[in-house]
Amino acid sequence: MELRILKPAFAPSAANQENRQAIRNQIRIARRAIPAEAQKRVAQEAASRLMDIIYQRQAKHVALYLTSDGELDTQPLIETLWQAGINVYLPRLHPFSRGNLLFFKYHPTSHLIQNRLKIWEPKLNIIEMILPQELDVIITPLVAFDEQGNRMGMGGGYYDRCLNDWQLRGKPYPIGYAHDCQRVAALPTEHWDVPLPLIVTPSATHSA
To answer: What's the pLDDT at 44?
Structure first.
């Protein structure tokens, strides 16, 4: 398999960087404040909503992420995907190309290790790897999103690089996944930011 690495130039303006960090701090505090029982309930609601979209798209290969820092819990979604016979994949930091991701199949017996960002990821196993353009859907983490479908992550640009030309290929179709409290009126953006066509929250599906 030929692995294509995309490297947009990242040089945020000082004003945007300050604004984005302020939004990150505010939203991360808000989502971490959601009580554990409410987290369980909204995770089930969001998983049900997103599964309807996955079925509509007839997706067979879906990438997502493991939850951390108060993010909307993906575990109910993962288990529902497994039960439906849909292949699930997790990202892993590229070992040789900083700022890029690789994707590996994830199943109940997968062995995970913690990376330098303290995030759990699959072991490097070429047999389990899939190229981004072979994925049908990629469910992206985010810190905040706005009414135009703009997504703000933690600032590393991993998903912006991965999705840089998804519209030209038609795959993987990106869907944001977030708590309702992570929606803001407008986000400061940069030229490399990749907007999302859909963002799913527990109470709604937002389309750009």
So the answer is: 98
